[in-house]
Amino acid sequence: MSPDSKKPLLVLFVCTANKLRSPTAEDVFKDYPGIQAVSAGTDASAPRPLTKELVASADWIFAMETHHRERIRKKYKQRPPDNRIITLHIPDEYERGDPELVALLKEKVEPRIQDSAVQ
């Protein structure tokens, strides 16, 4: 839960097209207690494009690659602090739901959010 309210922690996952990596992350974390997982893409034609409202409302942002993080930092003034915008270093080489991708996401994201989410 976010520290200032009883609402779930909003965790935003970002990739380019919002078709493979970030939707997989949303699928993995959507049922975690105290977490509201959402995904978006930096590409304007993504099924869910990244918006200033999404960025501003996020408690944590997990960017799949460095260029996603830098775009968020440069384009959006209202955003979580830099220490809550994390680059996962997951390249665009996985299919949606790939077990290896799921394992990487759990390994890299769980330690960051488990202490923040109230169960």
Automatic annotation (TrEMBL):
<dbReference type="InterPro" id="IPR016919">
    <property type="entry name" value="UCP029416_PTP"/>
</dbReference>
<dbReference type="InterPro" id="IPR036196">
    <property type="entry name" value="Ptyr_pPase_sf"/>
</dbReference>
<dbReference type="Pfam" id="PF01451">
    <property type="entry name" value="LMWPc"/>
</dbReference>
<protein>
    <submittedName>
        <fullName>Phosphotyrosine protein phosphatase</fullName>
    </submittedName>
</protein>
<feature type="domain" description="Phosphotyrosine protein phosphatase I">
    <location>
        <begin position="9"/>
        <end position="119"/>
    </location>
</feature>
<dbReference type="InterPro" id="IPR023485">
    <property type="entry name" value="Ptyr_pPase"/>
</dbReference>
